[in-house]
Description:
This protein is α+β, with helices and mostly antiparallel strands and 94 residues long.
Amino acid sequence: MEVTLDRQNAQTQEHYFVYIVRCVDESLYTGIAKDITKRVLEHNSSSKAAKYTRARRPVELVYSEVCEDKSRALQREYSIKKLSRLQKEALLEK
C-alpha cells in the first residue's frame, strides 16, 4: 500500500497541543502550543516561559493532546484549568 502526503493540506493545517507540565513543586501547569517540544524547553530554560513556571523549574511534560485548531485548543485548555487537582491527576492516569 502506498501512502502519499498531501503537502499543501499538511502545510495549511494548524494543529495545536494542549499540554500539562508538572513543576518541581509538584504543581501542574496547563497550556497550549504549536510545537510542544520547543515550548517545554522554553518553560525550562527561557525567558519566554510563563511567569508561573519560571519560578518552578524544572518542569516535566506529563500530558498532551492534539487539537484541530487554536480555538479548540483554547477551549480545551480552559476546561482542563477548571478541573480540580484530583480530576487532573485522573486525566494524567488515562
